[in-house]
Design brief:
single chain; alpha/beta; two-stranded antiparallel ribbon; 7 helices; 10 strands
Length: 288
């Protein structure tokens, strides 16, 4: 096991927005470098153990808070102008540029969790990546939800988000166990995209003026848990369809087969599932 160190840094996006991030530095020179794209409303500290593991395997790693979330929220959440589109067009590219400067002349990878894997086609520098590996990244389309979860999903998306935005000027997603409070534009786009198909594809030609989904041909691995109510297999394939020229390998993880009671949408990154983490590092090792 390699000795590692970590340090908190600030990243400045092209529109001057500052993001809070953490660098994980292996003891020796990095064999490759990985950015971890967080799920909607999830702070970077959630990925600390996973990032530490990747760093112990010899990778340089960076975690970050999207604008409007965690330590990247610089005003009250109700005043935040953050959006899913800005996360993909501004935040993620700035993080990748920082990764490239910090760990020069290596291969660069993305681990995307949910939104962190959905939005990479908005990155102007996405072609600087060698490969990516997503967990729980799907279109989130309500039409493909299991019937047992459909009512809950409709309540959150089509009642809770608009009412919370109206009453508070943002979505109090923390009240229903859905991460940090969400800026209203983030929540509104999330609602709109999950009511369609292809997630971000819903906004092509409207809010999304330019994108790179059509010409991404990177190798990719898409993992999902069979007990994930959001990123079910139909929604994962719905999201993959937005990348018409991409190589996609899909792996379903059945919790009991891997010795855990649940994985769901979030617990892949918990220490209880650390025996699954080599699925990511081994995948990237192929492309070094």
């Amino acid at each position: 096991m390699n000795s590692i160190s970590s340090k908190d840094i600030a990243i400045v996006c092209s529109d001057s927005t500052r993001l809070a991030a953490t660098l994980f530095l292996p003891q020796s020179s990095a064999k490759g470098a990985i950015m971890i794209g967080p799920a909607t409303g999830i702070k970077r500290q959630f990925y600390h153990a996973f990032a530490t593991y990747l760093c112990e395997q010899g990778f340089g790693v960076i975690t970050f808070d999207n604008r409007g979330i965690g330590e990247s929220a610089h005003s009250t959440v109700s005043k935040s102008d953050a959006s899913l589109i800005k996360w993909g067009e501004q935040d993620m590219p700035a993080v990748l540029e920082t990764l490239k400067v910090t760990f020069p002349n290596v291969h660069y990878f993305l681990v995307g969790h949910s939104a962190g894997g959905q939005l990479l086609g908005l990155m102007h520098n996405v072609h600087d990546l060698t490969a990516f590996c997503n967990f729980g990244s799907s279109s989130g389309s309500l039409r493909n939800m299991r019937k047992s979860y459909l009512l809950k999903a409709h309540f959150f998306m089509n009642f809770y988000i608009p009412v919370s935005n109206l009453l508070f000027g943002h979505t109090k997603s923390q009240w229903v166990g859905m991460g940090e409070p969400l800026p209203k534009k983030v929540a509104r786009q999330w609602q709109h995209w999950c009511n369609g198909s292809g997630y971000v594809k819903t906004a092509f030609g409207n809010d999304v003026k330019t994108h790179h989904y059509d010409n991404i041909s990177l190798p990719s691995k898409w993992m999902l848990a069979t007990d994930d109510d959001i990123a079910n297999i139909a929604n994962v394939h719905d999201m993959i369809s937005v990348f018409p020229n991409m190589e996609a390998e899909v792996e379903e993880l059945e919790p009991q087969a891997h010795g855990v009671n649940e994985i769901g949408h979030m617990k892949f990154f918990s220490r209880k599932c650390q025996h699954l983490w080599p699925k990511v590092s081994d995948y990237f090792n192929q492309y070094l």
